[in-house]
Fold ATP-dependent RNA helicase DeaD.
Amino acid sequence: MSYSRSPRNARKSGGGRPSRFEEPEDTIALLESVGPVVLPPEMDSFDELDLSPVMRRAIAKAGFTKPSPIQASLIPYALEGADVIGQARTGTGKTAAFSIPILEQLDSLEECRDPQAIIVVPTRELADQVAGEAARLARGVPTEIAILSGGKNMNRQLRQLENGVQLVVGTPGRIHDHLQRGTLRLHKTWCVVLDEADRMLDIGFRPQIERIMRKCPRNRQTLLLSATLPPVVRRLAESYMTEPTVIDCCRNEMAVDTIEQRYFTVANDRKVELLEQLLERENPEQAIIFCRTKRGTDRLHRQLSRTYHGACGCIHGDLQQRERDRVLQSLRDRKLKLLIATDVVGRGIDITTISHIVNFDVPQDCDDYVHRVGRTGRMGRDGVAYTFVVPGEGEVLTSIEQRINKELVRDSLEGFDPVPAPVAAVKSEEEEAPAEARRSLNPMTRKKKRRR
């Protein structure tokens, strides 16, 4: 397989990237304004990738049979040491796409006791999931992985860092805490991964992310994974990445093809009644019901627990991490049928048995809708998503449909007459703020061959 991308050590200075990002009218032009765009190649087997025998055995044991588009695209560039922006929807194997090339190139703990790679994620749940996936793929070679996230025992993290780690997976806030304490040294870190970058920036982690990037060597490799590329993500890429290649696995399909997407129009005071009848009709294998607020999540959980008793769980940001972990494990063990949650689990839940998503409250951001819906239909499985729309939320519904380039199908239940949902004109986007000055980075060169 041939790739048009030249190795990093062959880059020329003063490339042709614009000094600031424009806002092109179409998505393809928007992506090309960030860097050269690559579409996923067809690949039938992991044998077509330049991977070590021990990694191929770990991949087979993990149950992977064929590379997903993002894996087939990203792994070769990452192994070359290139900076990459991967745009792919949730449930497409992004974690393995960046974990495999990192694990293939880690030096042993005896050679380097400081973190060689760092993976930054938006939530504690996603940190646990990514670290678990990396540990599965590291099978066969001793690999020290540290999880640095809030809600976890700080003393344990300190001991782990002191004893030496090769790979760090964590949330921006806790990683930043360790940097301030001086307990995390990133001077030997050669790869930084920003997973779910749009979500991290959306919830206000930009200052912490920028400090993390500044603490890493300037000649590092940077991999940025994001389901969407809003202006703030593109500005971050321009400031901290060197001529990134953009891998587009979302062209013409922002929503998962295998997910059936429907909506109900309903009065606000009848939403609970509608939900109960919908669950009775659908009888889902497992379902996640998204609410907008923590208080609303608790209230709905109490109401549904009367019917579902121990088969109904609840997660939001005010719960202790131990309780959140317990509920998620119960969901994975299929002890729970329903999970009532805020957007804290809009990303980071990778459970293939989630058959239904219900947006009890319409998300205010259409990108949040994409990620909520992505909790079902994982890795090509079928799924269905329902959204409850109350009068006055027609504009949000229209924005969602424009975002995914698909109309949601109106559904109905006996006794629930459709309620008009007025559709307002979509507001034009505000003019993009000037981009920050581009930070030039030196090409990264690896001194050694892969250790496997």
Notes: Residues 8-248 form a domain with the Rossmann fold fold (CATH 3.40.50.300). Confidence is low (pLDDT under 50) at residues 1-27, 421-451.
